[in-house]
Amino acid sequence: MFKYNSGFDSEFQTEALPNALPPFGNNPQVCPYNLYAEQLSGTAFTVPRKENRRTWMYRTQPSVLHNPFEEVEGGSLSHGPFTRSNGYQISPNQLRWNPLPLPSCSETFVSGLTTIAGEGDPKCKSGLAVHMYTCNRSMINEAMYNSDGDYLIVPETGTLIVQTELGYLEVPPKFICVIPRGIVFKVNVEGGCRGYVLEVFKGHFDLPDLGPIGSNGLANARDFEYPVAAYDEVENVEGKTKEEKYNWKLINKFGGLMFSTERCGTPFNVVAWHGNYSPYRYNLEKFCCINSVTFDHPDPSIYTVLTCKGDDVGTATADFVIFPERWMVMENTFRPPWYHRNCMSEFMGMIWGKYDAKEGFQAGGASLHSCMTPHGPDYKTFKGASECELKPHKFDKGLAFMFETNVILNISEKALAAEHRDVNYFKCWEGIPNAFQGKEEKEGGEGGENKKRKIGP
Ligand SMILES: O=C(O)Cc1cc(O)ccc1O
Ligand SMILES: [Fe+2]
Description:
Layout: E1 4-6, E2 12-15, E3 36-41, E4 54-59, E5 70-72, E6 88-89, E7 95-97, E8 113-121, E9 126-135, E10 142-146, E11 150-157, E12 160-164, E13 167-171, E14 175-179, E15 185-188, E16 193-200, E17 224-227, H1 242-245, E18 248-254, E19 257-263, E20 270-275, E21 280-283, E22 304-309, E23 316-323, E24 326-328, E25 345-353, E26 366-369, H2 379-387, E27 393-395, E28 398-405, E29 410-412, H3 413-417, H4 438-441
2-(3,6-dihydroxyphenyl)acetic acid binds at residues 300, 337, 340, 342, 346, 357, 375, 402.
C-alpha cells in the first residue's frame, strides 16, 4: 500500500511534490513552495560524523504552532521515576504473564499503552522502559511525540498504520518499527491490537557488529524500510476562530510524564525531507539466521536484530533478539535453550505460536527473568529433548523475542498484581528429578564416552 526507501541508516531524500526540496543547501532564504525549513536533530550536533543523525523537513507550517503544554494524567503509561513510592518494585523471581486481554472499551495506541518495567531516568538520558499496548481505535486529530527516547514497537495482534511526520509505515505482526525520539506520529488501527514496546532513553538502535560472521547475515541493512514524504491535505482555515484552528491534540511524553496541548492543524504537513533520522520498519521474516551446524546450542546473541549500545563495549542498554524459524541440525546436543543464569535481564514476548523451551508461554504473553534469575526449559521439554532422536529438524512453531538489558528492571505493581499474571509459573520446573547416578554406577567411567543420559525414574 505505501512506498518505502530502503537501507539501514542511509541518507534519504524524498518529495511528495516535485522539486519541493531545495536543490542544494538546507535552508535557503525562501524554500520551494514557500515551505518552512525545520531541522530535527537526533544526536548532539557535534557527535562524530558516522553517528550523526538529523533530518531536514520542509513543511507547510513549522512545529512551533501549538499552545503551551500542560501535564495530564498519563494513565498506565506515565511512569515518572521507577521507584517504590511511584508504584515500582524489584523481584528476583521468574515472572510470566498470560496475554493482556484486548480492550473492552475504546482505546488508542497511546491511551492503551501500559508500562510493565523500567530502569533509569529519561531526564538523564539513561536506561529503558518496557511497555505493552492494547488498542482498538485510531487516533483522530491526535498525535504524539516522545522526548524521552526511541520506541521499538513489536505488534502481536493487528496491523498498525503508523503515520509520521516523514510518511507512513504499515506494521503488521511479524514486522517491527522504530520511531526515534521526537518524531511526531499517530497510529491507525482496525479492530483489536496488542503488542510490545521497548523504549530506550539513550542513543539509538544499531545493527549489531557481525565479527567473524562477515559482511552479511542476521538483519541485512537493505531490508530496513523508510517512509517516503506524505502530507495531509491542507485545511481551509479562512474565517475560523483560534479554537477552531487549534483542532489537533498533541501529546508529549517528557521526563516520564505526559503533557498535552492543542496545535494548529495537522502536524503531518511535511512536503519533503532529507536526512538520516527517520522512523523505519523491518520484516522479521527477512532475518538471516546463523546457527550451529556441528554441536551445541550457541548464545542467543546470534539472533540479535537491533542493539542499542551501552557505555561498556559489547554490553547493550537493550538488545532486540528474535527466535525465528530455523533448522536445528546440531549433533549430540540438547537443542532447546539450556538452563542458565544471566547477568543481563531477559524480558520475552511471543509474536505467534509456541516457544521451544516451554509450554504455557502464549502469544501476547510475556516473561521476565532478571539478572541471575535461574531459568530454562520446563521438565517436559527437557525430558523430550534429551530422549528424542536427533534428526535435522525445522523449528517452525512460533516466533518469540527478547528485550535483553544490562539493567535490573523495576516492575510496575500493576503488572505484578494483574489478573493475567501466571503466579504458578515457577511450578513448571517442579518435579525435575535428581538424575545423578552416583559414582559407582556412572557409565563409561573416567574419561568415558559422553553417553546419552537416562532421564526420570
Ligand atoms: O531464556 C530464554 O528462553 C532465552 C534464551 C534462549 C536461548 O536459546 C539461549 C539463552 C536464552 O536466554
Ligand atoms: Fe534466558
